[in-house]
Amino acid sequence: MFRLLRHPLPILAVFAIPFVAGLVAWPSLPVELLPSLKYPRLTIVTSFGNASSEEVESLLTRPVEEAVGTVSGLRSMTSVSSEGISSVVLRFNWGANVSLAAAEVREKLDLIADEFPRDVKLPIVEHYDPTDSPILSIALTGPQDLTTLYTLAKDSLKPELETVNGVATVRISGGLSQEIHVLVDQGRLAAQSVDLRMLVDRLEAANINFPGGSIIDGHMELPVRTVGRFKTLEEIGTVSLSSGTEGGTIRISDVAEISQSHTDRSSICRVNAQPAVLLGLIKEPTENTVQVCRRVLERLGGLVNRLPKDARLDVVENEAPVVEQALKDLRNDMLWGSFLAFGVLLFFLRSFESAGLIMLSIPVSVVSTFAFMSFAGVSLNMMSIGGMALGVGMLVDCSIVVLEAIHRKRGQEPDGFKAAVSAVNEVGASVVKNTHQARFGCSRL
Questions:
Q1: How many angstroms separate the CA atoms of 293 and 280, rounded?
Q2: How do residues 178-214 score in pLDDT, each as one tens digit?
Q3: How buried is 380 (Cβ within 10 angstroms: 0-12 exposed, 13-18 middle, 19+ buried)?
Q4: Could you give the CA distance from residue 334 to residue 328 in angstroms, rounded to a whole number?
Q5: Which domains, and CATH codes, for the chain?
Q6: CB distance 40 to 92 below 8 Å
């Protein structure tokens, strides 16, 4: 092994290959503020109308706990039964495959779905991930009412922004969603001998799109659908309920008032004390935060021109400048630390060659690390760059120990090559052991 040290070209190639690979991988590394952490935790949420907490516990929470209690890798399980809501939290061991665990949980829940009461909604399995938080928040404001702004954000802005490369989904909060209200008059309903359940069933049966088979024309097969969705409020009123006592037809408009309104508000968003609709953009896990934000901001320029009069789009939160500034500060700290280390080494070693050799190893090691980060799927973030800064410090410490040992051996051995080999044999094992212990200690912290 040490014979190769007499041939500089192979040694140069050993260090040049990862260095060049790091230069190639550097631009494609994802840039984030914090690393992606997958918490080994799943939450099962089940809704049951206005049921009491006792009913929720006996009819939902306990069956769910019994069904998922045998999921592999489960460490602990807690539950909360409140009015109309059952919440069961499953915690797994760190390193467990949460995706496989979620699939197993859904299989267990499917086996007991038929045992739930009729009004119970299907359980929802949620997985908390900090990277699901929006990287960019855009506020839509204007003189229009909140219903119009919400419809504009949902039908126009959301589909357009989701086509931007790197955007996974767009969450909308605030605003008012349109809703049709059928206000039944109980007196008229009873006078016509019509049951409320019948009215609900007739509405559901009339407001559907149903497949009607297919038509074969030569070599073509055309699908046929029965389109029955309501388009106007008047169509809802014409739905027939039953025949009257005098031979007429009783329709929904005879026993109810139909109006267009909005759903109950579940969130309120204001920008500069003005009501607004907020669009939160969530990026794909492997994408670069800074680049995705830049693409979205470029797309906003075209969307603003298509908005109604006096409507505005304002960026209220943007994670890209925060990420860039944090990484810039870390980079500057590493550079200043390297220059200070070079000055200290030059002052104490009294050798420009020795100090320059140590400082040359720093950029080679850092850039080479980018290649391994790309292979391992690690992003550039505060934690990874902080780890590299710590590694640079350990690199300088180890280099000083090795150089000091070589300098001492050269006083005993006239052949510089043999002195270097002897020094590395003497301190190499200790340097590797201490470096490993320091890395292990930091990982435990």
A1: 12
A2: 778 888 888 887 777 777 888 888 787 777 766 667 7
A3: buried
A4: 10
A5: 2-30+350-444 (1.20.1640.10), 41-128 (3.30.70.1430), 131-177+265-321 (3.30.70.1320), 179-262 (3.30.2090.10)
A6: yes
